[in-house]
Amino acid sequence: MVVGVSKGFDKRLQMVGVGYRAMLEGQDLVLNLGFSHPVRMPIPTGIQVKVEDNTRIIVSGYDKCAIGEFAASIRKWRPPEPYKGKGVKYADEIVRRKEGKAGKKK
Questions:
Q1: Looking at residues 20-25, what average pLDDT do you find?
Q2: Does residue 53 come out as left (phi exceeding 0), alpha (psi in the -120 to 50 range) or beta?
Q3: Top CATH class, 1-89
Q4: Where are the domains of the chain?
Q5: What is the pTM assigned to this prediction?
Q6: 3-class SS string, the chain
Q7: Which end of the chain is more exposed for a tag (fewer CB within 10 A), N or C?
């Protein structure tokens, strides 16, 4: 709790995929994740969100639980898939990749 008040906590998310981007509009985080509509997420009070390079999102604040919860709610819209690695992932997350159908030999 002392670290949260003095330095603060942050979670970094990265968007991988063609056309995936994020932007801030007022108190909303707008995500384009390949759906037919943009995803609008209201930012909770006590949490700051920064967007860098349209593909990196930094969620910061003093409440570690609320930061993790909001970052997980962003990630749940498009979790990283194992074949191409596309989706929203944590910056330090390693996505375990699978080989496709062509990789299997008899």
A1: 93
A2: left
A3: alpha beta
A4: 1-89
A5: 0.85
A6: CHHHHHCCEEEEEEEECCCCEEEEECCEEEEECCCCCCEEEECCCCEEEEEECCCEEEEEECCHHHHHHHHHHHHCCCCCCCCCCCEEEECCCCCCCCCCHHHCCC
A7: C
